[in-house]
Amino acid sequence: MDLPTAWNLDDKPFYLSIDLSGLRVNYEDLGSNIGAIRANHPIPPQCKLFYFEVDIIDEGKNKWIGIGCSKKAVNLSGTLGWYYGSWSYQGNDGKLYYFSGIGNPYGPLFSTGDTIGCCLNFTNNTVFYTKNGINLGIAFRNLKDSLYHCVGLYSPGGSIGVNFGSKKFKLAGTTE
């Protein structure tokens, strides 16, 4: 069973660059394109619980960063959560997007210096997010299918780093 360990170098738009570690993504466009990147492996439902954290290194000009998941078939040259098979929590407005361009209020805005966690719970088929280690409550229900962790960016100068579990999480009560 392969678990997500890095971003998929071949599963992203050209204007998103990945560093040599495979864990940091930079938005390298002037702001005319929206794009997302998927993890190198889907989250196996038999894990029952899978969590990852995204460090907002630089929110960029638009502060438009979305954190969530998608099915393999979702087009990554668009806003994460706006298309069928994807969802996200957006930093610029604190809303959840689930197969729609109309968001629902959820949590606080996030920006440079924040760490946002995303947990898929296949035991009760829910997703919750955290901000700087604090649980924000259930965001989505009815998980189905094979899913990949994703991050969407539309913010010139934006940069994020990911922790798929290779170091200690900020989530309260977790260990290495």
Automatic annotation (TrEMBL):
Residues 1-169 form the B30.2/SPRY domain. Pfam families: SPRY. InterPro entries: B30.2/SPRY (IPR001870), B30.2/SPRY_sf (IPR043136), ConA-like_dom_sf (IPR013320), SPRY_dom (IPR003877), Ubq-SigPath_Reg (IPR050618). One of its GO terms (molecular function) is carbohydrate binding. SUPFAM superfamilies: Concanavalin A-like lectins/glucanases (SSF49899). Keywords: Lectin. This is Concanavalin A-like lectin/glucanase domain-containing protein. It comes from Gigaspora rosea. The lineage of its organism: Eukaryota, Fungi, Fungi incertae sedis, Mucoromycota, Glomeromycotina.
